[in-house]
Amino acid sequence: MDSQRKNSPIGVFDSGVGGLSVLRAIRAHLPNEDIIYYADQARVPYGARSLDEIRSFSEEITDFLLARGAKIIVVACNTASAAALSYLRKTFPDTPFVGMEPAVKPAAEQTNSGVVGVLATPATFQGRLYASVVERFASDVIVLQNTCAGLVEEIERGALDGEKTHQILNSALRNMLGHGLDTLVLGCTHYPFVIPLIEEIAGNHVRVIDPAPAVAKQVEYRLETIRAKSKVDNEGTVQIYTTGNVEKLASLLTKLGFENFPITGIKKGQV
Ligand code: DGL
To answer: Which of 47, 73, 89, 39 has its CA nearest to residue 187?
Structure first.
């Protein structure tokens, strides 16, 4: 691996701001890496779209990130991972990809009650990836699911503690809690931004699993494998691209607890 590649950025994408929960974990774990982040906010949410459509958006975004020198692509979106990860790996055979997979395995290992819950979008539940993790790792536990309709939109609006957000999470969790849930998997990268509310509703006997730290370790592992880990000592930079509104995203970043990363507005489908 030449030193130029080592200093290339990590490309991260999501339908919106959800993948920033993964970016946060990558920065905590790999602080010297530069990151370019693509938020497809003109087309968020992805969750109710067809798998074909999500696949084509994901391919377009991968082209965009590769054109800006990304040395690895992190699909920081469960929905895009479910719909497109294996397709992307086939279409870009020379590019390393790290994707999201619902953390059903650790949940099944950690539950005491034998009841785990998964919150994710409809497309994530439809994808083959989800069926396969449940089949492989959760045959001995009860797995409850909920799609939290409207929650991604509320988080994109910055309504982390709003009335509608309360309603959506209350109705999603009430039924699961009634069945003895003690472990909850966040199968959508937007949801870690409402962990305080989830904990308030679910109570402290429910363990909430955010896979972002494990994904950050996986990114490091893949970079080491291809010898592309940054060797610089200075703090890495973050550049954000959005197909949505730049000013709105800037104020949302502050709400979500991020510094003022530079944001560039782009057209959807632009490469
Ligand atoms: N962050 C995406 C995920 O992890 C959001 C889904 C959406 O856009 O509906 O699934």
So the answer is: 47
Give me ligand 1 centre to Cα 17, in Å: 9
Q: How far is the CA of 232 from the centre of ligand 1 (A)?
A: 33
Residues 173 and 115: beta-carbon distance below 8 Å: no
- Cα angle: 135, vertex 137, 138; to 5 degrees: 75
Structural domains in the chain?
3-100+213-265 (3.40.50.1860), 104-210 (3.40.50.1860)
The label of the residue with tokens 């492989």 reads 136
Q: Looking at ligand 1, which atom is closest to the CA of residue 188?
A: 4
- Condensed to tens digits (0 to 9), the pLDDT of residues 123-165 reads 999 989 999 999 999 999 999 999 999 999 999 999 999 999 9
Q: Which residues does the annotation mark as catalytic?
A: 77, 188
- How many angstroms separate the alpha carbon of residue 46 from the centre of ligand 1? 6
